[in-house]
Amino acid sequence: MKISARNQIKGVITEIKSGVVTARVILDIGGGNHLSSVITMESVQELNLKPGDEVYAIIKSTEVMIGKE
């Protein structure tokens, strides 16, 4: 897989929380850190995603927000 996005984070799917239209896919990216992504259920099915799969989170954005309490 070759893509132009440079922000690629390798991880393992730990959980998929399925909804009617979308799903929340949670990745273990190592070091006790997790990352979640909301994608369509159609994408989950087309990619045949399941817990234990090794995947890449690909972040392509012109803006990253930071918050602090």
From TrEMBL:
Top-level taxonomic group: Bacteria
Keyword RNA-binding found: no
Residue span, Mop domain: 2-68
Gene3D superfamilies recorded: 2.40.50.100
Keyword Cell wall biogenesis/degradation: no
Biological process terms in GO annotation: molybdate ion transport
Keyword tags: Molybdenum
InterPro entries linked: Mo/tungstate-bd_C_term_dom, Mop_domain, Transp-assoc_OB_typ1
NCBIfam families in the cross-refs: Mop
Protein known as: Protein containing molybdenum-pterin binding domain
Organism: Lentimicrobium saccharophilum
